[in-house]
Amino acid sequence: MVFQTNLERKIIENEEFLNKAESLLPVLNESYITPIQLVEVLPNKKKIHGWEVRSIDSVEQLSKMDFGKGDQVILDFGEHLVGYVTINITPVGSPPDAPLHLKLTFGEMPIEVAEDFSTYNGVISSGWLQEEVVHMDILPGILKLERRYSFRYMKVEVLATSPKYKVQFQKVVCKNVSSADLTAVSKLEHSDKMLQRMDQVSIKTLVDCMQEVFEDGPKRDRRLWLGDLRLQALANYATVKNNDLVKRCLYLFAGTPDDQGRLAANLFIQPSVIADDTYFIDYSLFFMDTLVDYFHETNDLVTLTDLWSIAFKQIENSLQFLDSNYLFKGEGFFAFIDWAEGLHKETATQGILIYVMKKALSVAHLVNNSHKLLLEETIPLLVEASKKYLWDSEKQLFVSGPTKQISYASQVWMVLAGVFSAQKAKETLEKLPSTDAIEPATPYMYHHLVEAYLVAGDRESALDRMKTYWGGMLEDGADTFWELYNPKNKAFSPYGHHLINSYCHAWSCTPTYLIRKYNM
Amino acid sequence: MVFQTNLERKIIENEEFLNKAESLLPVLNESYITPIQLVEVLPNKKKIHGWEVRSIDSVEQLSKMDFGKGDQVILDFGEHLVGYVTINITPVGSPPDAPLHLKLTFGEMPIEVAEDFSTYNGVISSGWLQEEVVHMDILPGILKLERRYSFRYMKVEVLATSPKYKVQFQKVVCKNVSSADLTAVSKLEHSDKMLQRMDQVSIKTLVDCMQEVFEDGPKRDRRLWLGDLRLQALANYATVKNNDLVKRCLYLFAGTPDDQGRLAANLFIQPSVIADDTYFIDYSLFFMDTLVDYFHETNDLVTLTDLWSIAFKQIENSLQFLDSNYLFKGEGFFAFIDWAEGLHKETATQGILIYVMKKALSVAHLVNNSHKLLLEETIPLLVEASKKYLWDSEKQLFVSGPTKQISYASQVWMVLAGVFSAQKAKETLEKLPSTDAIEPATPYMYHHLVEAYLVAGDRESALDRMKTYWGGMLEDGADTFWELYNPKNKAFSPYGHHLINSYCHAWSCTPTYLIRKYNM
């Protein structure tokens, strides 16, 4: 499950682009949020992950409670936050004759403040588990945590005071941060209250992921991933309209190609802009899609022109992986597509390539006529190849790979690529539930499935999927939408343990876009 | 073992005195120390606490070593340090895609970097155990630890990196701090190399405890204790001669009496000067002793005059505890004297009272004639009472309490009080080893025993005790002298666990004073 490592790849930085990105660095909006109640988290098999939150006292009681060694409290901030916590700590009893030793644990979900992190055995670094162990030598004092946390619940455990003193936690406050301006969002009044709530939670998810870049998740990985950016940008256009942040992110990617012109799957922003050494064909291609969406939204021809070459380069790179039949061939972890286990990705990638090339063609006449001609020539060849070699006329479904694997992903991307008419697309998608097709594993793939239904004119299936999927998360207590959700296996994690999953995740924020764009 | 708690006592601050103390705040001297080797700590029953340090590599190798999850290294700085550590950390491999999670453990002694702190079950707060757990979100980076540590050994454990990267520790450096100026110390060239080394280690112990005040121990409690201050001042006069620091500490104590005029056993310096709510008769009395020593050393009559009243007040307070026979009576944990278990303290306290009154009398004519007269009248009454009621003429030893307990402490303080002639004092002390007298438990009491031998003219026994006691620590590997040392039980701790003992402790720093003052 470790992504690619490409230690030898060489980055060719484009300083002009990076400077432009730097000039678009947003100022973060800050708000100060205090907890709303004291809670306990108890085992309950009927609740998500087996844990239930119960209120035990009002937050006003906190400052009257004395905490000695072994004591703990869980604070509920009432909503998902991304920010910096400070706690005013006052000693009670004799002058403190030993350092205070505290452990703080932050949870987006109840499980994170209920289960011991030492039980974590997943493949992703345990460094992401949000906890801090601190000593305070001087009391009274203000504990100002330097790291940013993504959480709703905060557990405070006193590891040590001394026999002579205890402590009280007076002011507890979180400086919440986001580069999004919520006042720009028109309120959606929907007759369907679930959709109305889904819209709100989508926006909250988006807003909490909007920091100095569009992050994938503020808990983990806190990074600018191209696949997430593309969806975040769509939700952004429908709501907070911070289009300069999209522009900034486009310039960041464009500023850090490798010597083959490839754009990385994600960027690190600190200590400086660094392209990760992971490359996914689908993500690289989506740079063009995101650029064209941005242009359609803003009519910013300067940016389109600036970034066209590097965007088109991703298409050119992908075309090199076509075989003589115009079929895309990939090796290793060449594309992301979805976390679905065992998924064969060539057919889906073929669909994405066609989809992106068509998107590019929609604006190519404005920037590069020879590219336009190339697209016009090549797209039909890929479409025909898809129909000829990837369509199983017996099953009436697209297949992928030597085992002729059937998956939602393959159908969805061929539908989004417009390989067939809407009617035939609808029929294809309708067939899927009765097959053993590999199902979507992530909100990311569910988004594409829903959009495929809508493109195929099947609003009913789209709505149904949204209600069972994102609606399911709402029923399971989501304050923000999750990185991963499998209604049939709610402990699912591609990382070996659901403690490490992100519960406010960018690629899950699209219902607001789907609802608003398609008037759901 | 918890000291007194006096939550109701009221402090009457003397602002003038506290301002004077503040004006004497020293500037700390800084030096930058790097580790000398990489070591491992292995079980060895013949070594102190059962642990032996073995060199495994030169420190130059460190920056070439890659550390991933679960890896660790122990750095040996070659000497005892008090300061602030910084580590330059560089990632190796792919760009770091998860926070680095590190645990750092600091040890004055090998055991501290060998045994798991979770095994600690003593009565003193585990908050003193020197460890830090930190996350670093941005790499490369400089880990700058904000807390001060007292140590020779530093263990670095990598709790998490990620599968995609490891780290290297490049520069590791400790900013060592002390308010002492070592260049003021005349070097002692002694024909006895053990005494020469003992002198050096004493001075190092003193210097490492000299910070913004004379601390008792830089690991624990990092506080200004009156009993320790008195001995530190003596070692200071013999060596680094930072007499202003003694003056500052005198003014700090004088600035924070309670409403009965009592001086606390110790002061906290941060966040502001706070008198602890622990009061020991012996420690309060030693304020006068320390003041008179300071005056003898400096001829600073202004300070003597300034602080005389509060110093004399401690004597007046103590006299209230005399019964009609002029015998001191105490209840509870009224005096410290020593950590020896079961020690009855009234006779020793009687001795301390006489000793301090005599010391006061030596300068009383310069400041307060009526006090002088009072002392002249009272001292003989206490001396006579001691001889009459506390001397067991059959055993030819001082006894204490209803069980007529025999202890080193009782004899030592009666000798130091000069109740008998030197010859009789010598005979008294000579009798002790053949009795079942309660023995000294701390370097603090050993200091008084050695000085009692010297006052009694028994240089041989004094030297013998120094060589077996502090010399024993040297043979057991002391870089600085320890808070506690029992050659017969090297794991002794009055706190229930020797992990929490301080291994650089002020009250153990006096050999340099004894050697230099008495020309040992």
UniProtKB/TrEMBL annotation, chains A, B:
InterPro entries referenced in this protein's UniProt entry, alphabetically: 6-hairpin_glycosidase_sf (IPR008928), 6hp_glycosidase-like_sf (IPR012341), Bac_rhamnosid6H (IPR035396), Glyco_hydro_78_N (IPR049164)
Domain Alpha-L-rhamnosidase six-hairpin glycosidase, chain residue ranges per copy: 185-514
Name recorded for this polypeptide: Sugar hydrolase
Keyword Hydrolase carried by entry: yes
Classification of source organism: Bacteria, Bacillati, Bacillota, Bacilli, Bacillales
One Gene Ontology biological process: carbohydrate metabolic process
Gene3D superfamilies: 1.50.10.10
Domain Glycosyl hydrolase family 78 alpha-rhamnosidase N-terminal: 35-175
Annotated source species: Niallia taxi
GO MF term list: hydrolase activity
Keywords of this entry: Hydrolase
Pfam families named among the record's database cross-references: Bac_rhamnosid6H, Glyco_hydro_78_N
